[in-house]
Amino acid sequence: MNRPPSASLLLALFLAATAAFATEPAAHGGSHGGSHAGSPAATAADTAFQAIHEKEWAWRQQQDGGADEDSDAAAGTLDPRLADVSPAAQQARLQAWDQVLRQLDALDPAQLSEANRTHLAIYREQVRNLAEDVRLRGYEMPFNSDSSFWANLNFMTRRPMHSVEAYRAYIARLNDVPRYFDQQIDNMRAGLARGFSVPRAVLDGREGSIAAVADLRDPTRAALYAPFKELPAKIPAAEQQALREAAQAAIRDSVVPAFAKLQTFFREEYVPGARTTLAASAMPDGEAYYRQQIREYTTLDLAPEQIHRIGLSEVARIRAEMDAIIDQLGFQGRSPETRFQDFLHFLRTDPQFYATEPQRLLERAAWIAKRVDARIGTYVSLPRGLFTIVPVPDDIAPFWTSGRGGLGTYWVNTWDLPSRPLYNLPALTLHEASPGHALQAALSQEQDELPAFRRNSYISAYGEGWGLYAEKLGKEMGIYETPYEDFGRLTYEMWRAARLVIDTGVHHYGWSREQALAYLRDNTALSEHEVTTEVDRYISWPGQALSYKLGELAIVRLRAKAEAALGGEFDLRAFHDAILAEGSVPLPVLEQRIDAFIARSKAAPASGAADAR
Question: What is the model's pTM?
């Protein structure tokens, strides 16, 4: 088995690589924005900064096993080992990132190019979040009700593999699963011991995705075997057979036993020992942990009380718009007092709003996506990359959201069709596919002038803010064909506003799970299944749910600011290009970039989208 290097060696390698950061010229051949090493305009500070971020990024990729949904699926290489997640390795990373932060703080931003000042603001916060997560020992809780290290292994099947060496590296990773799982179990055990765990209240049924692998009898039925079903024709037949046999042996002898061991731990130790509280603030260092989660996912220094108030205000505003649509439809209900709840019941139960076959749901999503295609070019400069539409894998579908989009793929959840209303599908498609995440991710990958740490990273407030803004943009684009679909748009916006109230309600104000369920159920037309899975997600993943609405509010405010400043010279497509050309950025940085866009547009209003950058 290919063992990862020790934590002391990891740190030694990193320190050796960073020893000359302040003076060593940066390697050429990478892509980076603004002045760079070798450019006549590059300063010593630019050269030093480039050396810091390029070497740390390369080192970070070596640390990251790449077996999760955030990994770069376009990467052409595959490490034969999974990540070393032991406490010693985590502390070595913390020391390395703390050293990087000290080196960044020694730079004089005034000596950097304009582009590098922006890069520095983004990069420093990125590294700070990585360091703080380790400092607060977030690795002791490596899963939540939405995502997990064991299910995320399946994402490595998306990595392109074209050679025998790549397939052998993949098989080596399969054989490394027992070591990787053992480290995760040790970390979770340490978390249990100090009361740092996923709450017991959201753990029921979460064992299913583990059991799906632990109970496998035929290795070829495993999702992890998928890359071997169709091997490249250039690989000789005998070699293909040998690879398939090795993969089956790795799944049978390494992967399945590792999942069985994890299942036993989960059932006999984790669930019985999980904390009975819900609030993040109830955990050790809980208040600091929750504030760090808020900062990471919103990129803002907002107090929970402020966020709660914003949420309540947005809920009230959106509710008035929902009531207006009910008026438009002439729906009466049993009484004026019950009319809203009666309308929600009608939406949740009338068969006209639900697909009866999974393929019907997929086809409807595709139809909406093609209608968007006909209009989107007027609103956004299009990427070269396309996306496909596929169902969410069966093993994770029961606890996943209704859909999810990313580079090259829009996943639609076809599990439990009575919980997937068609009136929500336009908003879902706009958010997850185009002009939301799939388009956004493709554009980000194509920003060749950006450094790798920007091109291949995802900041939730920016990304989810754009996704929710894309839903609103769909109204201007004419995508919502009926009042019911427009109500679906509003129920999705209400869902994100309610998150501000629920997340802070649970993690700061001490709400019960029942309070949170009732609040989401009473204010949105989400199905009962979605209400439950969403609330459990907020409980087990503090702070992440805050990013959507706060990000969207920022983009809406910046658009209003640009419209007011530019008047008749405001170009909506150029504004959207200005948002998207930056890649993933913290909200304060996005505001600075839009201020610069406004200034450039005033100076040269005819330059249009070219000024977006």
Answer: 0.86
